[in-house]
Amino acid sequence: MSASAEQPIIRFERVTKCYEDGETVLKEVSFEIRRGQFYTLLGPSGCGKTTILRLIAGFQEPSSGEIYFDGKVINRVPANERQVNTVFQDYALFPHLDVFENVAFGLRIKRMKQADVENKVLEALRFVNLKGYEKRQITELSGGQRQRVAIARAIVNEPQVLLLDEPLSALDLKLRTEMQYELRELQRRLGITFIFVTHDQEEALAMSDEIFVMKEGTIQQSGTPTDIYDEPINRFVADFIGESNIVAGQMVRDYEVRFAGRTFECVDGGFRPDEPVEIVIRPEDLEITPPEAGKLVVKVDSQLFRGVHYEIIGYDDAGNEWMVHSTKRATVGDRIGLGFDPEAIHVMRFGETEEEFDRRLLAYEESADER
Amino acid sequence: MKAAKRWQSAYLIVVFAVLYAPIAYMIFLLVQQRRHDARLRGLHA
Amino acid sequence: MNAKRNVYLAPYLAWMALFIVIPIALIVYDSFFDIDGGFTFGNYEKFLTPIYLKMTVSSIWYAFLITVFSLLIAYPAAYALTKMKHKQLWLLLLILPSWVNLLLKVYAFLGIFGTYGFVNGALEALGIGRQQILFTDFSFVFVSVYIFIPFMILPVYNALEDLNPSLVFAARDLGASGWTTFRKVVFPLTLDGVKAGCQAVFIPALSLFMITRLVAGNRVITLGTAIEQHFLVTQDWGMGAAIAVFLIIAMVVIMLLTGTGQAGRVRR
C-alpha cells in the first residue's frame, strides 16, 4: 500500500465545539478515521456523537481545533463541497420527489447526463434491493424501504465516507437486526468508510471494526468491540457496554487483587501496592457452584428467565451485588457459590485516561514476557 | 452563517419598520394635536 | 343520530343562509334589473363593452402586481421569521397592525406620502426635491401591499415551519448550493403556503375600492370602485350587482384553479 492510502481519511485534532449559550458539547477531541473501516460512535444522548457527525458533514463548524479530510483542513468547507454523504435519522427523503428522483438528486446537481443518471440510479437501487421501485412515491414505502432509499441516495454519489446518524432507531427489532447485517455487508462490498452513530451497544458491537465510546463531549475509549468489551477502561464504559458487576477492590500487588473480603489471583498489573481499584466481572463469566466450592458465596435475591439464560442476582456477605447469567437455575433464598477464572477479573484504575491505560498495559505485558 | 443571520434580522427590521410607520405617524400626529390644544388653552387662560 | 346532528348544524346553517346565501342570491337577483326596475339582461351586455372590460383588465393587472410584490416581500420575511429566536413575539408584532382600522392606516399614508409629508420632507433634505407620490400607481400598489402583507406572510411562514429542517441538510449534503436547495427543495415544499397566501391577497385585491379612492385618487379605476360608484352614486344597483356577480365567479374560478393542486399533492 502506498503512503497516501495509509494516511487517515479523517483526522480530528483537539476539536472543541461550543454553542452560543456557552454549552460545550465537544471537548478537545482528537482521533483518526482510516479508509475502508466501519466505525461506530457510541454513547448516551447528549454525549457529542451527533455533533462529530455534523462537523464531518459540514453542518457545523468547530469552535477550535482542526478537522482534516484526506490531509487537508476542511473546517470552513461548506457541506455541499465535501466528499461525504449522510444517511439521516429520519431519512430526510424529499416528499415531493419519487424514489428515482430522490436518488438522482445529487447526480442532477452535478449536471450528469440523463443516460448516466439512469444507469447510476438503477445500479444504486439494485444495490439496496429496491429494483422496480423507481416510480413509487416516498409515502408509499415502508420504514425499511425508506431506509434503503436514503442509503441509495447517499451512496450513488460515491462518497469516500458515509455518515449514518442512528439510521436504525426508527425500525422495529426484527428489521433492525436484518439491517445490521445488510449495512455491514454493504460496507464490505463498497469498501468505503462508514461512520455510524448509535446509542445501542449491541448494534455497535455487532457491526463495527472500531468503536468510540463517548461521554459528555469526550471519547472515553476507542478500540475493537472485543477490546472494549473485555477491557473497559472505566466504570462508565463497563456499564455502557453490556451488563457488568462492578465492585470496589484493592490491588494487593501485581496479579493479586482483594475484593469482597478475599484475595484473588488476576492477570492485571502495573499498580501501586494497595492501590484502591474497581474490578469488573461480566455476568456470563460467573458460574454457579456448590457453596463450598465457590470462590465467592452469595445469597440468591432474585431470578429472571431471559430465554437463553437465567439472570440471577445475589448478594455476598460484604453486601456487593452480583449478577450471574447461567443456564443453570438457582432457588431464591439459597446460598450458592460462584466460580470464575483469573482472566475473568478486569481491574480498572480510578480516573485513568486511555493513553495511560495503554501505556500501563504495554509496560506490564513486557514485564510479564520477561518473567 | 452569521452574516446570513444579520441580513435576515436587518430585513425583518425594515419590513416591520414599514409595517409600523403609519401607526407611529398617527401617534405622532395625535401628540402634536394634544400639544397644539394645550397651547391654545394656555392662550385663552 | 342523524336527526341529532342536524339539530347541532341548524344554527350554523341558518347563519350561512342569512349572511352568505341570501345576500348572494339578492345580488344575482338585482343584477337582472335595470335602473327603473324592469327585468333585463342589459347589465351583463353592458359589462362586455370595452369600458368595463378595460376596467376588468386593469383590476386583474393591479391585483396581480399587488400579489407579486406581496409575495416577493413576504417570502423572505417569513423565511427570516422562522430563523428568529422569539418567533411568537415577532408573529404577534406582525398581526398587531391588522387590528388597527384599515381606513386609519390609509389616512396615515396620505399624510406620509403627501406633498408636505414625511417622505417628501426626507427627499427634499436629501436634495432630490419634492415628488408627486400620492395619486400614482406606485402609492396605490405600495399601500395595498402594505395592507395585505401579513396575510401573505402567515401562510408562507406556516408552510416554512412545517418544512422538515433535515431536508435542507440533506440537500446541502447531496451537493446543492444554498440557492439550489431553495429552488429544488424549500420552494416546492412550501408551494401550498404560497398558493394560500396568493389567494388571500389576490381575491380581496380584485375588489379594492377604498385604497383606490383615497391613495390612487380615482386615477386607477377597478371593479371595486365601479361597484361602489353604482351602488352609492349612480344608484344603478343592477349594474353594480352584475359586476359583483362577475367578481364572485372570478373568485370561485381562482380558488378552483389554485386549489386543484392541493388535492393531488403528496403530503408528509
UniProtKB/TrEMBL annotation, chain A:
Segments forming domain ABC transporter: 10-241
CDD domains in alphabetical order: ABC_PotA_N
Species the sequence originates in: Cohnella rhizosphaerae
InterPro entries linked: AAA+_ATPase, ABC_SmlMolc_Importer, ABC_transporter-like_ATP-bd, ABC_transporter-like_CS, Mo/tungstate-bd_C_term_dom, P-loop_NTPase, PotA_ATP-bd, Transp-assoc_OB_typ2
Pfam families: ABC_tran, TOBE_2
Coiled coil: none
Protein's name in the database: ABC transporter ATP-binding protein
Keywords of this entry: ATP-binding, Cell membrane, Membrane, Nucleotide-binding, Translocase, Transport
Molecular function terms from GO: ABC-type putrescine transporter activity; ATP binding; ATP hydrolysis activity
Origin: domain of life: Bacteria
Gene Ontology CC: ATP-binding cassette (ABC) transporter complex
Automatic annotation (TrEMBL), chain C:
TM segment ranges: 12-29, 60-82, 89-113, 133-157, 200-217, 237-258
CDD domains: TM_PBP2 (cd06261)
Domain ABC transmembrane type-1 stretches: 56-258
Subcellular localization: Cell membrane
Membrane disposition: Multi-pass membrane protein
Highest taxon of source: Bacteria
Keywords: Cell membrane, Membrane, Transmembrane, Transmembrane helix, Transport
Primary residence: membrane
Gene Ontology CC terms: plasma membrane
GO biological process: transmembrane transport
InterPro entries: MetI-like
Annotated family: Belongs to the binding-protein-dependent transport system permease family. CysTW subfamily.
Protein name: ABC transporter permease
